Amino acid sequence: xxxxxxxxxxxxxxxxxxxxxxxxxxxxxxxxxxxxxxxxxxxxxxxxxxxxxxxxxxxxxxxxxxxxxxxxxxxxxxxxxxxxxxxxxxxxxxxxxxxxxxxxxxxxxxxxxxxxxxxxxxxxxxxxxxxxxxxxxxxxxxxxxxxxxxxxxxxxxxxxxxxxxxxxxxxxxxxxxxxxxxxxxxxxxxxxxxxxxxxxxxxxxxxxxxxxxxxxxxxxxxxxxxxxxxxxxxxxxxxxxxxxxxxxxxxxxxxxxxxxxxxxxxxxxxxxxxxxxxxxxxxxxxxxxxxxxxxxxxxxxxxxxxxxxxxxxxxxxxxxxxxxxxxxxxxxxxxxxxxxxxxxxxxxxxxxxxxxxxxxxxxxxxxxxxxxxxxxxxxxxxxxxxxxxxxxxxxxxxxxxxxxxxxxxxxxxxxxxxxxxxxxxxxxxxxxxxxxxxxxxxxxxxxxxxxxxxxxxxxxxxxx
Length: 464
Fold this sequence. Notes:
Layout: H1 5-11, H2 14-56, H3 62-67, E1 71-74, E2 77-80, H4 84-108, H5 113-129, H6 140-167, H7 173-200, H8 209-227, H9 229-234, H10 250-264, H11 269-298, H12 304-332, H13 335-353, H14 360-386, H15 394-402, H16 411-423, H17 426-431, H18 434-445, H19 449-455
Antiparallel strand pairs: 1-2
């Protein structure tokens, strides 16, 4: 006598186990978003400009420090104080481009993905905590800390993204990825709200503005490290899938697999097409977010309270935007929302270029638009890409993906910094980013999503 379908459904505990781990997995988005929001998006760049400006002999006024033209020396190069944070971010991603694929190959062969994730997270948080010691004219320690923490953050996200494939089916992927991103925006927003209150009320609690910023930077590192404990404890490790027999040292195996991965990409033309598209449109997204506070301060003339409050608004709107895009994807799949999202980003950049100075209502409207599209395009890009990679190669392929991921983009920030240095204005630097979204859209339109998923050996979701 065989069990009835209802009995088999009750006996099948796999969905419940996946749901439990998915909830644990969300916590790492909650943990690391504090670093990407408080540090990379809001606090670091303006504060680094101020500290580097002090070292360059610029006036005490922060706006003048960003535009006075004085330079600081880094590795034999003379860099404008106003461009220094963007050059550092570009350097971090160039370094990541060489390191992350090696880390990804190791992750794919490991039985302990969550340990890799936690190790890199805690090491990155330790480096980020050194930002607390950046003060006066001592920008060098901040330069080392931001590069190291950015690279380590990228390394941790490789294992985190690879775990997504282990804990969700193809049909669940968009929902799980969207909820993770939404949870991350909520966590980043909560800590930013706390830091906003501390910064705005620093006089009332006896803190200087510099100390308030430094404590905010430190809080992001502590938040990142502390909440990483939850997924580390609750996730379970799984053996690798289709692990190939190899010989030689770990470094030899890693580089060897890296070359095989790059060579194998020719067999997955749709995967390669999406990677190229993502490289461009994500670089544009990351640069818009990374430069938002600097653009609002130096070009539009807003004070710190408006800027931080606007970024906080973006965080909470992005929480809803990620969930909204997840629901849309449950009906029409993830490909079309990503494509349409790139066109929305072009409109946002054009509108931001024409924003008049100190017009708060218009600035907030742009922020609302950014929030709605931000979470959705990033969350669905992750889940859609996971369908385009062969099983057992998640670490290697997500390493290539994360080389262009949030906080580690390099083309956009490099162009932004160069255009600013050539024009002494952030408006043309911002407008130049349209090219990244246009190129990304071009490659997305050349992509056949169903073909790409089948070529990777995965099941095409019924909604796509």
